[in-house]
Amino acid sequence: MNNAIRTEIFTRLQAANPHPTTELEYESTFQLLIAVILSAQATDVSVNIATRRFFPTHGTPAGILELGEEGLMDKIKTIGLFRTKAKNVIRTCEILLEKYQGEVPADRDSLEALPGVGRKTANVVLNTAFGFPTIAVDTHIFRVSNRTGIAKGKNVVEVEQRLERLIPKQFLLDAHHWLILHGRYICVARKPKCPQCGISDLCEFKDKTPIGK
To answer: Residue 35 and residue 51: Cα distance in Å, rounded?
Structure first.
């Protein structure tokens, strides 16, 4: 795939969704961080259901510490790995209060030092909250990048590096959201919705789903 085709792909994605953003619900950078920590191996829908139980009343580091680990587990028990996630969230809240006056740091090293925060989570926060042109490669973005030919790679780090290098600069800030939403709703894992896809004529995927299937 050449740069002209990549530019056309993102031009179309931008036209279809000029202001893409995460589907996680949050009202502060801290709440975004917690929601992303909880979203590991869980859907955004399930995370939103859980966070609605405590964000309105305990949506700050101090508020979550007031809930305590047991109280938090009770709120998020519908999410996978909720025990481990509760431990990580409690410790993250403690660190934010001890080291950052309750604020979320805006650099990768500090973010990745927080319990439950890996490269992907840090990338989401850096991009969505702080406006860095980072791309958090999840299963959807990995699939879309390889299928379409936008940026092929054998692992998520390889795909991330190639996306950041190959995506035209004017689209880089929002590329994460366009790709994840495209993978979530159109370029799905099984039986991709190629007849509904606005970029199917530019896509290199050979086994496209035919019209009427």
So the answer is: 7
- Among candidate residues 120, 169, 174, 193, the one labeled active-site is 120
Architecture of domain 3-20+134-202: Orthogonal Bundle (1.10)
Q: Could you tell me the pLDDT band of residue 213, with boundaries at 50, 70 and 90?
A: low
The domain defined by 29-128 carries CATH number 1.10.340.30? yes
Residue 109 annotated to the active site: no
| The pLDDT of residue 17 | 96
pLDDT tens digits, 49-85: 999 999 999 999 999 999 999 999 999 999 999 999 9
Tell me how far the alpha carbon of residue 52 is from its chain's centroid: 19
Q: Which residue has the tokens 């519908």?
A: 78
Q: How far apart are CA 191 and CA 113, in angstroms?
A: 39
The residue to which tokens 């030092």 are assigned: 113
- What was the pLDDT predicted at 172? 95
Q: Which of 75, 85, 138, 174 is catalytic?
A: 138
Break the chain into its structural domains and give their ranges.
3-20+134-202, 29-128
Q: Is 152 a catalytic residue?
A: no
Quote the pTM value: 0.90
State residue 211's pLDDT score. 81
| Integer Rg of the chain from CA | 18
